[in-house]
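Thread: "does anyone have the structure for this chain?"

Original post by V.I.:
We have the sequence but no experimental structure in hand. Need at least a predicted one for the grant figures.
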Amino acid sequence: MSYIPDWVRWSPDSRRIRFSVQDPRTLSFTLWEVSADGSNLHALLPGWNNPPAECCGTWTRDGKYFLFQSTRNGRTDLWAIPEAGNLFRRASWKPMQLTAGPMSFLSPDASRKGRDIFAHGVQRKNELVRFDSLSKQFVPYLSGMSAEGVAFSKDGRWITYVAIPQGNLWRSKLDGSEPLQLSFSPLQVASPRWLPDGTHIAFMGRLSGKLGKSMSCPPKAALPSKLSRMNTTKASRTGGRQEKTRLQPVS
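Reply from O.Q.:
Generated one for you, tokens below.
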């Protein structure tokens, strides 16, 4: 499996090169460093973010800080590594968080004088609409809430959808009443669909840096809020007794 290097940046003193490497399977990024002569190739922040999701770093013009973006729980923020100390203090090399939402910040760059940082600010938002056959126009549905992947139960009483930008799975009645959040970060959800018997909702679930899998959950029970693995157990009731099952790929 070949990995894809990108966003190559030389240090201001021309002694080091840092770049981003993308895993073609998970599409996640990690930061790497190598000396100018090609020696000492190594990951820049091993074990710092699990799974790693760091990209697009650059030095400030004076070389005192290395700026980069890091994605956690579906949001990307800017971080900085102190590179240079002084006579009384050594560089800590502990990343400092520069932004904390609500929008994501991407591709940082420093001004020439080092006083400002420029970045792309992005906040994904959708508007839920329906087609009105009388006016022959699209009109807001459920107050035009920010969601996608709407699916209707077979009996036409319930809907399921993914809230944007959070990426969480919800279900509610057709008029939006009795909403219930079914999944929580860091799990990102896409393409929910009701099973024909209405007992479960199938969807694609993905944790940052990992491959997505087909999953399902009942529409009346939320998944664990601290889901950390795709095979986390969930509780359901069958025939009046409680049993534990696992979130397995849907067959």
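V.I.: this helps a lot. Residues 129-246 form a domain with the Neuraminidase fold (CATH 2.120.10.30).
O.Q.: and The mean pLDDT is 83.
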